[in-house]
Amino acid sequence: MTDVTLKLSKPYVVYNPEKADKIVLPAEKGPLTVISGRAPTSLMLRRGVIRLLDKDNQPLKHYFIKNGVADVAEDICAVSAEVVDAYTDMSKELAAEKRDAAKTQEDKDYYQMIFDEISLEAGGSFTPSVRR
Description:
By secondary structure, the chain is of the alpha+beta class. Helix content is about 20%, strand content about 45%. The chain is built from 2 helices and 9 strands, in the order βββββββββαα. Strands 1, 2, 3, 4, 5, 6, 7, 8 and 9 form a 9-stranded mixed β-sheet that branches. Strand 7 and strand 8 form a beta hairpin. Helix 1 (about 90-100) packs antiparallel against helix 2 (about 105-120). It is globular and about 40 Å long.
């Protein structure tokens, strides 16, 4: 299987391109998996996690994003997001701090999503918070 390249950016920052066998995007209508040879498409993204996976569906890397767009063509998945946080740069404690300091509900929800995702990945049992 040929790799798919993720080109990720946010305002004023462009990340180094990364290759993976599969890229799972948090599309507005549910997760979308990008594989080599996929038909070209453009789509809106919601807050969530971009997952880069190997051929055995094992995670290579994760990015948390807040809203964005994706264009997929010729084995390139170009994503532009409002906010991008690398999984390795986050912790439950940091996500909780940022959530508590956030000024908008949208930002509070974003950091709560990160907190919940890290809790789930760590194997801890949790009940996702519902914030209204």
